[in-house]
Amino acid sequence: MDQKKFDAGLKVRREVLGAAYVDKSIANADDFIKPMQELVTEYCWGEIWTREGLPKKTRSIINLAMLTALNRPNELKLHLRGALRNGVTKEEIKEIFLQTAIYCGVPAALDSFKTAQQVFAEEDE
To answer: Any coiled-coil ranges, and where (predicted)?
Structure first.
């Protein structure tokens, strides 16, 4: 493991997903899932999210569309919260999901709209 990339990834991951969530994920990682937590932190966050080519807001927009296409609601919840932290507005999220309805399918987009409603309600509390 590249400790420098892991540390940089951990910093960005905490900024986007929230320190409490990230710290809990790492603390609760047993021997089975620990390698996956390390891989995600080092490569997804330390290698890609730290690149200068795209701002975090754009990366969040792309992730919302891809997670809708892949129909991954658990990851979508995390990245919805991250998108809000990265400055993506609810109006922009709505437009992202309308766009995905055409290119990824209406059922996938509907699930994303429903997931977003849940996240927005939790964030508004």
So the answer is: none
